[in-house]
Amino acid sequence: MSGEQPVAGSRAARLLGGESFDLHEAIGGWRGFVESSLPGIVFVAAYLVWGGFRIPVIAAAAVMAVLVLLRLIQRTPVVQAVSGAVGVAIGAVWAWRAGDASGYFVPGLWLNAAYLAGILVSMAVRWPVVGIVVGLIRGEGTHWREDRAERRRYQLASAVLAGMFALRLLVQVPLYLAGAVAALGTAKLAMGLPLFALTLWGVWLLARDAGAARETQDPPPTTR
């Protein structure tokens, strides 16, 4: 289930550099939303019905395989589906080796922790990741670092993004430690793309305001 993160990251980068925010694109379109959510829904449903870990893992993997196959048959882009399949496969292997259904969610927890750590480090060294990404996409490089107010906005935007990953860990790690598989699966679904899209919108607003503030402070020279 962690395989959706790289694709979501590339999609977020495109949105952050845009003049407007598209919620539909933020969730990967309705098909992308279904592809990222359905394996998890099936996993939780199978666990509630049969318990254990084998049937839920097999069911989730089978659903993901069907989704990828449909993409191939229809000859539509398979990047998001394949990325999701990789995440499901990693979670399935982890759960199978651990012999515990909760192991299915461990790779996602580690990935969220890695993202959180990376963002916090970027903020600590005053190179907030949102500023780096937006600067590259907009072709502005690192000029934003020369303006204190703009740099502060990018720090705040990065803090909002870090808050999303921290919130996921704060909610999901205790559920994992308690072995509450159904609750953990439900929380992961709710805090997946819906929370990501909402967070990205907030980050986009701050990034947009940062650029607008700099343009206001540094108007282009007029010709005589």
The number of domains: 1
The largest sheet, given as strand count, sense and whether it forms a barrel, is:
none
* Helix residue percentage: over 70%
In angstroms, what separates the terminal alpha carbons?
A: 59 Å
Rg to the nearest angstrom?
20 Å
Average pLDDT figure: 86
Structure summary, number of beta strands? 0
The oligomerization state is: single chain
Helix-strand pattern:
HHHHHHHHHH
What amount of the residues lies in strands?
under 5%
Number of helices: 10
Structural class: mainly alpha
Identify low-pLDDT runs.
none
What characteristic shape results from the CA principal axes? globular
Pfam families: DUF3159
Transmembrane segments: 41-70, 77-97, 109-136, 156-177, 189-207
InterPro entries: UCP010219 (IPR016566)
Keywords: Membrane, Transmembrane, Transmembrane helix
Mind explaining what this structure looks like?
The protein is mainly α. The chain has one domain. Helices cover 77% and strands 0% of the residues. It contains ten helices and no strands. The chain has helices at 4-16, 23-26, 29-50, 54-74, 79-98, 106-124, 129-137, 148-177, 181-190, 193-217. The longest helix has 30 residues, at 148-177. The chain is globular, with a radius of gyration of 20 Å. The mean pLDDT is 86. Keywords: Membrane, Transmembrane, Transmembrane helix. Pfam families: DUF3159 (PF11361). It comes from Demequina litoralis.
